């Protein structure tokens, strides 16, 4: 039990886990498009990690430490882009960072997270832009749609988890847990269908297998479940396409 608590505190609560899961989701599409490069991997991970740290700790006593860390992270990211890419990639990255700040920032009177029902779609939008725009020479509509629908679906179980504590109206509050799950099922289904028609076979199959696991985890989502079910189980779904791809390639 102590090991699980330490693991949760050092890996999950530290935002390392969600950052890695988001990065591996991007890697899946980079490999499919044959654009994978380690500097891009580092760029995405640092961006996610610094963003989630900022969101979590901006109202705490650690705020100034987080600002300093984010400033350093920003310099590192800018260096990675300038050294390995071009000014267009730098502009794309900057826009995505600004979109992240608009999601939840203390200096804004109204930010996205305060707007009822918009949060789930906004998170899907930002993650989709990383996959279909930041890592590619040109905007890919299929990858955007696959990412957008899949990630939006994954945010809904977290709304189910938080429905008794959220101060902003969410889908589970308005239409109930079961109907929220139906929306998530539909979004995953749409994402999978697009993936089957657009992605190369092995990538489409890996995504299909990931979708099956995602369906199961959504089905068993409940606001009485332990937080680890969501922060570890559901969060892992975004990395499943890449993990299934690795299994298929090496085993």
Automatic annotation (TrEMBL):
It comes from the Bacteria. It comes from Chryseobacterium candidae. The chain crosses the membrane at residues 12-30, 36-54, 66-84, 90-108, 120-136, 142-161, 182-199, 205-221, 228-248. Keywords: Membrane, Transmembrane, Transmembrane helix. The keyword Cell wall biogenesis/degradation does not apply. This is Prenyltransferase.
């Amino acid at each position: 039990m102590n090991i699980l608590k330490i693991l949760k505190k050092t890996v999950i609560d530290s935002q390392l886990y969600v950052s890695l899961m988001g990065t591996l989701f991007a890697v899946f599409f980079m490999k499919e498009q044959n654009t994978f490069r380690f500097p891009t991997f580092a760029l995405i991970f640092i961006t996610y990690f610094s963003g989630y740290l900022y969101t979590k700790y901006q109202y705490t006593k650690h705020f100034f430490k987080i600002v300093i860390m984010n400033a350093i992270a920003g310099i590192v990211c800018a260096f990675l882009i300038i050294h390995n890419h071009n000014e267009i990639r730098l502009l794309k990255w900057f826009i995505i960072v600004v979109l992240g700040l608009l999601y939840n920032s203390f200096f804004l009177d109204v930010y996205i997270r305060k707007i009822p029902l918009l949060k789930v779609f906004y998170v899907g939008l930002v993650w989709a832009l990383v996959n279909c725009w930041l890592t590619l020479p040109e905007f890919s509509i299929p990858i955007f749609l696959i990412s957008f629908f899949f990630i939006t679906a994954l945010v809904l179980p977290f709304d189910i988890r938080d429905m008794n504590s959220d101060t902003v109206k969410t889908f589970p509050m308005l239409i109930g847990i079961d109907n929220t799950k139906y929306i998530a099922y539909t979004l995953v289904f749409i994402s999978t269908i697009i993936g089957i028609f657009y992605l190369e076979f092995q990538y489409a199959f890996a995504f299909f297998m990931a979708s099956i696991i995602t369906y199961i985890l959504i089905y068993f989502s409940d606001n009485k479940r332990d937080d680890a079910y969501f922060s570890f189980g559901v969060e892992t779904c975004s990395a499943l396409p890449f993990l299934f791809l690795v299994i298929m390639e090496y085993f």
